[in-house]
Amino acid sequence: MRKRPAVLLLSIFFFVVVAITSLSSSMASADSSSSEAKVHIVYTERQENQEPEEYHIKTLTSVFGSKEAAKEALLYSYKHAASGFSAKLTPEQVSQLSKQPGVLQVVPSETLQLHSGQGKLNV
């Protein structure tokens, strides 16, 4: 029995998506092995008795060794919808920071782009 062309095309499309996802994943793990500092988002517990930025600098100081280095690495403090901050961190610093009390999660910052242009639908 012959497969329908649509089913065959769908199967090929699925295979290509899986292959691209796998390739992207392996490239991301290769990037994480470098010692270059990259931007990460650090989610923390909300501290009731401390200003968020003060707490974020204190948390970073435990990894960087000085308040000045922590302030330089800190890019932004999240204070409203989430508790956390963004900072430039090496893989070793990510590992150390992940073990700090009050740190819930450390994830790489990711910039996504919307697809638009000539191929978009006109309704």
- Computed Rg: 21 Å
Overall morphology: globular
Helix share bin: 40-55%
The helix/strand class is alpha+beta
Report the order of strands and helices: HEHHEEHE
Q: Main sheet: which strands, in order across?
A: 2-3-1-4
Count of discrete alpha- or pi-helical segments spanning 4 or more residues: 4
- Average pLDDT: 78
**Could you give the distance between the termini?**
39 Å
SS strand fraction: 15-25%
Count the strands? Answer: 4
Give start-end ranges of low-pLDDT stretches.
15-19
Main β-sheet, in a few words? Answer: 4 strands, antiparallel
Task: Explain what the structure shows.
Residues about 15-20 have low confidence and may be disordered. Helix 2 packs across helix 3. About 45% of the residues lie in helices and about 20% in strands. The protein has helices at about 5-30, 50-65, 65-75, 90-100; strands at about 40-45, 75-80, 85-90, 105-110. It has 4 helices and 4 strands. The chain has a 4-stranded antiparallel sheet with strand order 2-3-1-4. It is globular, with a radius of gyration of 21 Å. It has about 120 residues and is an alpha+beta fold.
Give a quick set of tags describing it.
single chain; 123 residues; alpha+beta
Offer a concise description of the structure:
This protein is of the alpha+beta class.
List the helices and strands and how they pair.
Blueprint: H1 5-32, E1 38-44, H2 52-64, H3 67-73, E2 74-78, E3 84-89, H4 91-98, E4 103-108
Helix pairs in contact: 2-3
